[in-house]
Input
Amino acid sequence: MSAPLSSLQLREAFLQAEIARTEVAWREWAVSRREAEVARREAVVAQREAAVFRREESITAALAADAAVENENAPEEDVTSVSLDGMAADTLAKIAEALMHAEQSCGGYVGAILPRHLGRLSRTCRELNAALKDTLAKLWEEHRTAEVLFRKCTGDGEHYTGAQFLCSNQGLTAVDMPAFVILLRSKALSSIQSLYLNHNYVGNEIAAALAAAAAGGGLSQLTSLHFAACRVGDAGMQTLANAIADGDFRKLVRLDLDHNYIGDAGIAALAEALKGAPKLAWLMLNNNQIGDRGVKALMAAAGAGGLAKLEDLGLAKLEDPAVTRNPFGVAAVEALADTISTGKLPSFNVLFISSEHSENQRLKAAGNNRGVHIECDTIKVMMIGHMGNLPLGFRECCAAEKFEKFESSLRRRRRR
Output
């Protein structure tokens, strides 16, 4: 006969039984929760599919009704089908493009890049299918290329969060730019606020792609744009400036153009366009080819109220024996000093400038009087504008959190 269980053993047995019962109950609840979520998602997909089908039916019915009205006086043998043969090819292409942009995706981020519903619509009418065959094939090919580019840039998804798209050091070329425009205009990237394109040596084409994407309705939520070290010159800067002037980047707060080949002509175009970006607070132009005329153009824009929100401006240069970098002289520095001292940069906090200019007495006096910190530390300038050559994980960390902490510490030191 076994000895009776002690109270401690009984309690332990009871607790084990209670734990087992709780685990079973939790698993059952988790399974039911997953099943309910799957059912909910299936219902949402079904509703979207039904909405798409209703829209396709209404468009098909409208086409048929229009054809019937146009042919009501025609001989009976001619009113047997809806013919689109007489429609111009460019008109059909515009119809296809409009339908493509009006689509609503049910397939996630990548699905939003593809013109799925245009294909469904074309299958509702044989004449429409035939008329749109070539256009649809071209669109599908372009959007498949954009999907491949999207996967190349995002990898396993860690480079894309919905609000931030990290595409630095991805080896983009001019050949990728047509697909890149489609990608930037797609529903997949409709909500991005920060776009990082540093160290993609594309040249002026990358600026043209950004301008084309914004003009087509993309990048409407963009607040932070970084394309340092992309070999952009005056032509690319002028193209981007035109888009800014047209109001395509009205929400832009941060613009990083470091380590490019932008000269006076490009900066003058940017200065004229700055009223199209009224929220701009952070402008990095370090290590470009800006001379006296470019700096004076920026200061003239500030005098006209085009830089009312500007807090940080980068005009420094790093030693580069192969290329002359930001070769502006004393006249430009004094224009900077005059603009600061007269309060034409009311929100200004930090100026990044080369050490040879940081000791200019008028500039130092203006900075002291207006509380502007003049920074000439090469390492900090590189951290601010040249993160594209850092290891990817560290660069992402800088872009998201540590870099903000660095800026905060710099501001605290300036206030002390």
